[in-house]
Amino acid sequence: MSVRGRFLAVAVASVAAALSVVAGGQTLARATPPDMFRFPVEQHDAVLQPESTVCGFPVSFDSSGEIRVHVRFDAQGTPIRVDVWGNKTGVLSANGIDLRFFSNDHKFFDLRTQTVTELGVVFRYSAPGLGVVLMDRGRLVWNIDANGEMVGDPIFEAGPHPSLHGDFRGLCAALTP
Q: What pairs with residue 91 in β-bridges?
């Protein structure tokens, strides 16, 4: 699963968990303040996809960090928005070459409009002497289904998102000895 796909899966699971905690045990008062949840995340992939397939050799990935989830309510106490922030660092490796990984990604699930807005640095791979070899950043807006899964193509896109469009040339070149 791609880095974007994995982060979205964790974000959707976080949204579901946060909403179940909020709905399960609390009596929601008028103008309830946002509930905040924070937890560590780790990702370890011996073969990261689609990078491994596109590059033609196994690409491994290890990262760790933290996700924060804020549930926001309307005046009646109904959850209307879930904000998910992820900050992670790690290493992408292939052929004995390591690239640094960084992510500061924010996803805003609007439960009224059934959209998710993704913004920030989805991911950045870099290496000393090479600089940035691949980075997805900017803003994307997607429609989501009742489970919080993205549906179809983005309905709005700003900023470069090369991996979203299958452009891994710089990454493959940097990992080729």
A: 62, 100
CB 86 within 8 A of CB 66: yes
- Bridge partners (DSSP) of residue 94 are 97
- The count of other CB atoms within 10 Å of the CB of residue 147 is 8
Identify residue 48 by its one-letter amino acid code.
Answer: L
Separation CA 133–CA 170 (nearest Å): 5
Predicted confidence band of residue 15 (pLDDT cuts 50, 70, 90): low
The residue among 29, 119, 117 whose CA lies nearest residue 73 is 29
Contact 109, 15 (CB under 8 A): yes
pLDDT tens string 128-157:
999 999 999 999 999 988 777 788 899 999
Between 27 and 74, the more confident residue is 74
